[in-house]
Structure formats: C-alpha cells, structure tokens
C-alpha cells in the first residue's frame, strides 16, 4: 500500500505519503488564496522526499470538507485526476475527522474550522476516531449550549474563545493525519466515503439578481 493524501478544505495545502504502516513524507503550507498554485509542487516535494514516483501510488486519499467551494474543488479535482490517470481508487475522508484524529483526544470534544461569514464548520466527537454528529455550519453563538464544557480543536474554535474556551491545536488539518486515518480504516475493512465534496452552503459567488442574458439577434 502506498497512499497519496491531500486536503485543500482549509487554508492549509497539505500532502502526505503513507506506506500502510506510517507516514513516509509530508508537506503543509498555510495560504488560503493559493491552493491551486501550491498543491502540485507540494505533491512533487513529497514524492521526492520519499524517493518514489507517482505511478507507485496505489490509492489516493482526499479531504472532502466541509470547506469553501473553491478550496475543496482544487483538492477533489486533483485527486480525481490522479485516480483516473493512475487507475487507482480515490478515498474520501471528512476533513473534520482528520483534525479529530490528529488531536489524539480520548474524551468527548469538538472540531471547528473557520467557515468565514462569522460561522464555523463543526462536529462533535466521542474520541479521536469517533464522530457522533454530522458536520454542520453555524454561528458560534448559536451552538454554545451544544459545545459547552467540551475541549475543542481547529482554527474555528481558536477564533471564538467565548464559545470554545478550551480550544487548542491542531489548528489546521494535515494530510499525514488523513492518510493515517484512511490506512487504519482500510486495514480494518471499513468502507470509506466517496470522494464527493461536502458543501454545507451555497458558494460565495452568486449570479446577480435580475441578471439578463444578452444574446446576439
């Protein structure tokens, strides 16, 4: 097994290789505006660090979000392209699950990422491997009672200390954690989700109201 993992659902552009036992190479850069520019060079760096070629990869792991439309599209389209070109399966993993796994917490907690618009993408977990609610998007003040008293990880939690007073790192997801989680689930015979984007709201860019299509006569 040689898994190539990547995620662009948060400001982090993150890539890793996992050989079924451990992470053999990884790269992460935080830049919310340069996902498309940074992702492929990061793949090249990781392959070079591992002294291997892309055609040695046996599976692709990609974070499916939730996250902003543009960022998610970069990672998912790249993963699908690699999968088609190499003829290997593409496995989707919830980005929040990757953050939870990296936390290594064994008590109930919350993962929250920055959804912009003064909102967070979030979910509750019983432990680092077990999510107990579906991912959602809400204003922090609207979920205070639901997350009260729980530790929290993720950039969204760190942004809103009034709602998440016990927030701490990891701030962003890492492909190393996604790859490790996926490898663990595959080894256990679990079926991973399809690599489809987890959009929880409409994209920021909208067609203006009363837009008129002008066509030549």
Automatic annotation (TrEMBL):
<protein>
    <submittedName>
        <fullName>tRNA (Adenosine(37)-N6)-threonylcarbamoyltransferase complex dimerization subunit type 1 TsaB</fullName>
        <ecNumber>2.3.1.234</ecNumber>
    </submittedName>
</protein>
<dbReference type="InterPro" id="IPR022496">
    <property type="entry name" value="T6A_TsaB"/>
</dbReference>
<dbReference type="InterPro" id="IPR000905">
    <property type="entry name" value="Gcp-like_dom"/>
</dbReference>
<feature type="domain" description="Gcp-like">
    <location>
        <begin position="32"/>
        <end position="144"/>
    </location>
</feature>
<dbReference type="GO" id="GO:0061711">
    <property type="term" value="F:tRNA N(6)-L-threonylcarbamoyladenine synthase activity"/>
</dbReference>
<dbReference type="InterPro" id="IPR043129">
    <property type="entry name" value="ATPase_NBD"/>
</dbReference>
<dbReference type="Pfam" id="PF00814">
    <property type="entry name" value="TsaD"/>
</dbReference>
<keyword id="KW-0808">Transferase</keyword>
<keyword id="KW-0012">Acyltransferase</keyword>
């Amino acid at each position: 097994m040689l898994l190539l993992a990547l995620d662009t659902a948060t400001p982090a552009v993150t890539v890793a290789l996992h050989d079924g036992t451990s992470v053999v190479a990884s790269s992460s850069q935080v830049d919310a505006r340069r996902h498309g520019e940074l992702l492929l060079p990061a793949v090249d760096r990781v392959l070079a660090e591992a002294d291997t070629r892309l055609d040695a990869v046996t599976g692709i792991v990609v974070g499916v979000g939730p996250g902003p439309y543009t960022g998610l599209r970069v990672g998912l389209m790249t993963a699908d392209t690699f999968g088609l070109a190499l003829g290997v399966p593409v496995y989707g993993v919830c980005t929040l699950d990757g953050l939870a796994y990296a936390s290594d917490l064994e008590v109930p907690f919350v993962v929250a990422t920055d959804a912009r618009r003064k909102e967070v993408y979030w979910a509750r977990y019983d432990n680092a491997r077990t999510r107990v609610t579906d991912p959602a998007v809400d204003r922090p003040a609207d979920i205070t009672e639901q997350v009260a008293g729980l530790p929290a990880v993720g950039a969204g939690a760190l942004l809103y200390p009034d709602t998440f007073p016990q927030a701490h790192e990891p701030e962003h997801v890492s492909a190393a954690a996604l790859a490790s989680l996926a490898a663990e689930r595959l080894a256990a015979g679990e079926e991973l989700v399809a690599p489809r984007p987890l959009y929880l709201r409409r994209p920021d860019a909208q067609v203006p109201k009363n837009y008129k299509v002008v066509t030549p006569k």
